[in-house]
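Methods: example folding runs. The two proteins below were folded one after another, and each record is reproduced exactly as written to the output file, sequence line first and structure-token line second.
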Amino acid sequence: MSDVLLLVPEIVLVAAALGLLLVARRLERARAAATLVVLTAGAAMAAGFAWPSPEAGFGGILAGDGYARFFDVLFLATLATSTLLSIRHVDSDRVRPGEFYALLLLAATGMLLAASAMDLIVLYLSLELMTLCSYVLVGITREKKASIEGAVKYFLLGSFASAILLYGIALTYGITGATGFTSIASGATENTGNPLLLSGVVLVVLGLAFKIAAVPFHAWAPDAYQGASAPVAAFLASGSKAAGLAALVRVCMVGFAPEHGLWSNVLIALAAMSILLGSLVALSQTNMKRLLAYSSISHAGYALLGLIAGTPDGASATMMYSFVYAFMTLGAFGIVIALDRRGENLSDYHGLARTNPGAAALMFLFLLSLTGIPPTAGFAAKFAVILSVVGQGHVGLAVLAVLCSVISAFFYLRIAVYMYMTDPEGEAPGRFPSTVSAALLVAALVTIIGGVLPDTLAAWTVPP
């Protein structure tokens, strides 16, 4: 029973998903199903802290430590926020709410398991559960060609990434004779420098890089984000990226710790390419979802900076960045969702400060945070990860990160210029749904509190 306590949040989510599937044909409107999902997320979060759980269970393949609990809170909060943002879109796109929200619940279950996994096989199955549900969510609006195109590209590239990850797991197991992270670390110490082991480490890291859309495994993100409905894109940008980072941190810090020199060099290359390409390509984007997709690619690079050091402080910085990024990107997507069809192109933001000053102010806050301007949470998180690489002597990488932050200020603050310094075009946006307003309020509070009181958030980060 002590082992089962580790899985109570996951059991709650799966039970709710199965319940929705059983009554899916009777659900015509999204509000009832969305209410169930939000309550389920709250119940799962409460269950995770209701009683003490063991540090590890099921023979050591799942962890119940502070690291897993930190990401559990993040994933469940992301699930609830994305659900609140999705209600109007589910109804307007004529998507079956039972199926849609069941997929969201199952994808979140995969995220929770990925953060707790202490075994490569369990990690692979967890990530595949999350990714398979994500494929369907991207293409669930079947009458839209862009949605189908994005889902197919996501699926094809995801299949190759899964093959790379599996091959890396096979090589790692072949040399170390284990799939558990602690046993892999012991085997890696005894086989330091083995070419097959080094190949396995690189392939596993590259396979996980796909989950966070790091360059050169980023090609799926812009098309998937643009083709998917805005709430699904928000869920992918915040939840799936955080799940990939959670898995990557634990795999590198625990399983592949003896090979720090190798995987840190791989991460340096991934981070540098992601920051540079994401920032430069975003300059030419006119579609808001594609702009946020390339923004997410660059932010994946920033998040990797903390992990490069291989220290607990660096891992904490990456954890904090994952948390902060999830909410500021949910907030930015939330404004896109609130404006409905009028918020998907940059030209739609002309004069927004006059027609809806509240929405413009919130968008400006999220843009400041994405840029990394104080006193927002984005600044505190970006400062922490850059400081971690400077402490390890990677000054050139830190300079690149700062320069690309300056570049990103152009395409983020260009939206602010449109909102405050141009005349309105087209119809004024209508009143925001109460559920969207609630989600935006949560995202704004995290963005402000994380910037004003960064130590409060950093105190929750417990490295693996």
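Second run, written to the same file directly after the first:
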Amino acid sequence: MLELLWLLLPVAAASGWWAAVHSARKQQRSSGDEANPVYFRGLNHLLNEEPDKAIDVFVEMLEVDSDTVETHLALGNLFRKRGEVERAIRLHQNLIARPALTREQRGQALLELGQDYMRAGLYDRAENLFLELKQSGMHMQHALRNLITIYQQERDWNACLESAAELEKQTGESQKLARSHYYCELALKARNEGNTPDIQRYLKQALSVDKHCVRANHLLAKFAAEQGDSAEAVRLLRLAVDQDPEYLPEVLPEYVETCKNLGDQEKLKAFLEEMAERYPNRGTEIYLSELIRSQDGDAAASEYLAEYIGRTPSMPGLVRLVELQCGNPALRDENLLHNVRSHLHRLLAEKVDYQCSKCGFLAKTMHWQCPSCRSWGSIKRKPLLEVGTPNSRELKK
């Protein structure tokens, strides 16, 4: 409350100054008055900690002219930040209706009103205002960024591509990452519609925009597998891992399944061994232990996991090792192992697996676009065991 009062005091001061300078404009004042009673009424609301009533009074006092436009814009921005979007919309609409505004003042008011509409979820109205700004050449960067936000919300990926290209020209900032994801979204749309020719076309366009787009190669691999071309799917999945090893956990299940379809166990084992050594704590050791178990039995799989965990701490690896040990009738204290297993499962269930590298947003599942900061390709899987945490130290003992 005190913070809001401090914000409103300059508004009150400005209103009082305006009332003094423009006293002749106020017909309701008596000729002997030296102060505006409405102004003092507003101050009284402030002192009584009634900021809403104070704001209404000061807005009532402020006529729109060249001296008060900035005050109106500041008040509207304050309303929007406080979540009072309807009041912000009314104020900015009233401002735009005034014929005395300069071109720059009208452009600023249009931008603020467009942001009000976006906050209220009125995307059609906001889009029309930002398009007007774009056509007039005013506040182009802000208008284009807001248009992209609206088009992403509406999943109009072609409009996103057009606006991103314009924004790139305006700012010189590369938009290739976002554009590559827009093409991937178009490919998914074509896939859902059964439009096979467009799937590959869009994904190739994504790679032409950004040759490092791991998502495009991942989708191409999915498409190849659906078409029965397992060898091409394996090649593309390996390429996706080489592009960005941090996405290895997302690729692993499909790589394993596709290799099984090919019947190439040796190629799969070589790949898993390489990945487990090059990129520890990505879950590869679990798939490799299962392959060893299918070929050589539980004891061999248990021996591999024990050796691997000794070199590279792995929470999932430890869980799997305990599960294998629980199935061994030679163990004397099965209750202890079963209890450890249940606790480890609980810890894994509570663990947040993904985090945005831009804003730190935490997620349980994979997102190609961060729900918080709207960045593309910024969410990555966290290490399966963060060495140095109290849990990991306990596990090492």
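Comment on the second run: Residues 42 and 56 are 8 Å apart (CA to CA).
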